[in-house]
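RECORD TYPE: inverse folding
INPUT: structure tokens
STRUCTURE:
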């Protein structure tokens, strides 16, 4: 008889995969990093790639967004090069992110910052000190907080359940009398509560050439959207019978009845006054009609634009003001309980699943991607940065489209300033209506957190959670050092939001004129439908 074979040995249990910061044993990895600091008498170790999630933050100033774009300076472009320089990516995979499973949790727009971005991929992270090596190759305004070992199938974009963004909006933006446009000032004359012309913004407009210029293009030196001389020139052109009307496409039919497809006029992305409205040509000069002989307009157009002056701003006192709820100030407009209640009521219109085709660009109403789910949207706190009070607008959603959050904020501000009635939300999400929605400036927006709840719950026994919790302090320090000072400085120096407020008028957004009728028709239609669905007492109901 043959001897019985010994019983098979039990399988060796797998060791939980944690980040290298909590794992003292460094396994072999890349050949380039293996030779650093090694004993010449010992054989060289071949280092191994690891699938990791890197948690980082950045200030978006000077960058054309997160996503890599040929010919533009982007966060992703600098990060990929830094990974190569730090030895995390081999020469063969340089500038080829697909080869190491690159993915990002969120794609921020131009000028938007992030306090908790997450990217993933297969990198050489050994020997210890990978985070320091990576930061040494990055600009100071981009910082890696740490990294976490993840599963081989992990993808930062696909595994992210929710994203939380914060928009810091100056409190004065909610005041209808602050930074009024020219039309509002003229309409208030003789009413007993006249609005004062904003001289401060006129001076800022002269110092910042092309501040109202089209996004993505270098503004012409002479194009000032809020210059007093330009306003008078626009007035002269309108009196001469030339008016842009805000319709850049030249075609638009307003009719809000029945089930017809309604195409309302669209004029750019709503962040600036169109050239047709200002009477500006490509060279930054005003095309005055031949029939106009107004000498004052011609003289005003000869004004020179002063050079931008450097201003030294006081430091931001974050210990006393950052993140703390500020009490209302006496004698000035403040974020009172009444204002807070109204603003939060307006923001609640966005909560739930809606068709946000009017709150983005290049996405049609019929596209399934236009439907997005907003979990919460509130503005309950006021923070003070460098003497300016900001409302902290926090929105949480599964995912967001291009400019979606900025347009949601833009329309909410327009409603708060009484530029458009609250009934606009009765039609804003309808598929058969196209609206030109204002886009708030990008400077106040930043990515606050990316959440991986489902992944962390599924792999909690074998992998470390992908979370910002271990890096809360360093992330808060980064906000206070780079993101918050940039937001405050842009408002102090250039008046990013203040200048934008001057563009919220019916001339730039002609759709607003018809919103009263549109809202009433939408409400009446909804009521009629509900009445038709309710059975009358004499009707026979079939089961």
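DESIGNED SEQUENCE:
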């Amino acid at each position: 008889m043959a001897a019985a074979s010994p019983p098979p040995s039990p399988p060796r249990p797998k060791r939980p995969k944690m980040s290298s910061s909590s794992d003292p044993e460094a396994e072999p990895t890349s050949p380039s990093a293996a030779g650093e600091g090694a004993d010449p008498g010992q054989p060289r170790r071949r280092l191994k790639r690891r699938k990791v999630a890197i948690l980082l933050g950045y200030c978006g100033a000077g960058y054309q967004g997160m996503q890599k774009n040929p010919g533009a300076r982007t966060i992703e472009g600098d990060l990929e090069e830094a990974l190569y320089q730090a030895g995390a990516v081999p020469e063969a995979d340089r500038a080829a992110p697909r080869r190491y499973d690159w993915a990002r949790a969120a794609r921020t727009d131009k000028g938007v910052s992030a306090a908790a971005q997450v990217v993933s991929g297969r990198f050489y992270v050994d020997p210890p000190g990978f985070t320091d090596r990576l930061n040494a190759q990055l600009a100071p305004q981009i910082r890696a907080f740490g990294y976490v070992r993840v599963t081989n199938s992990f993808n930062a974009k696909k595994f992210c359940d929710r994203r939380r963004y914060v928009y810091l909006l100056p409190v004065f933006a909610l005041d209808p009398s602050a930074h009024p446009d020219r039309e509002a000032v003229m309409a208030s004359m003789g009413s007993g509560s006249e609005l004062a012309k904003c001289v401060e913004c006129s001076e800022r407009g002269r110092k910042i050439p092309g501040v109202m210029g089209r996004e993505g293009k270098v503004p012409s030196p002479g194009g000032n959207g809020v210059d007093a001389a330009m306003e008078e020139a626009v007035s002269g052109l309108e009196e001469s019978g030339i008016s842009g009307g805000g319709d850049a496409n030249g075609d638009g039919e307003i009719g809000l009845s029945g089930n017809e497809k309604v195409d309302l006029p669209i004029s750019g992305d709503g962040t600036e006054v169109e050239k047709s409205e200002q009477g500006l040509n490509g060279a930054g000069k005003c095309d005055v009609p031949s029939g106009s002989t107004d000498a004052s307009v011609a003289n005003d157009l000869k004004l020179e634009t002063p050079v931008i002056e450097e201003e030294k701003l006081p430091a931001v006192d974050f210990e006393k003001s950052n993140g703390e709820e500020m009490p209302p100030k006496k004698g000035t407009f403040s974020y009172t309980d009444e204002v807070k209640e109204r603003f939060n009521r307006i923001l609640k219109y966005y909560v739930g699943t809606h068709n946000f085709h009017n709150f983005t660009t290049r996405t049609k109403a019929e596209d399934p991607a236009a439907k997005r789910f907003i979990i919460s949207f509130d503005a309950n706190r006021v923070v003070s940065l460098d003497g300016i009070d900001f409302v902290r607008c926090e929105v949480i959603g599964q995912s967001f489209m291009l400019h979606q959050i900025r347009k949601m904020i833009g329309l909410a501000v327009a409603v708060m300033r009484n530029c458009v009635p609250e009934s606009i939300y009765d039609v804003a999400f309808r598929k058969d209506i196209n609206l030109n929605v204002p886009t708030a400036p990008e400077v106040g927006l930043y990515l606050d957190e990316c959440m991986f709840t489902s992944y962390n719950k599924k792999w909690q026994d074998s992998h470390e959670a992908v979370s910002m919790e271990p890096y809360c302090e360093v992330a808060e320090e980064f906000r206070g050092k780079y993101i918050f000072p940039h937001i405050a400085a842009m408002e102090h120096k250039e008046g990013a939001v203040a200048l934008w407020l001057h563009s919220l008028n019916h001339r730039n957004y002609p759709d607003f004129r018809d919103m009263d009728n549109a809202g009433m028709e939408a409400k009446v239609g909804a009521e009629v439908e509900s009445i038709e669905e309710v059975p009358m007492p004499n009707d026979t109901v079939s089961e």
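NOTES: Confidence is low (pLDDT under 50) at residues 20-41, 206-324, 526-543.
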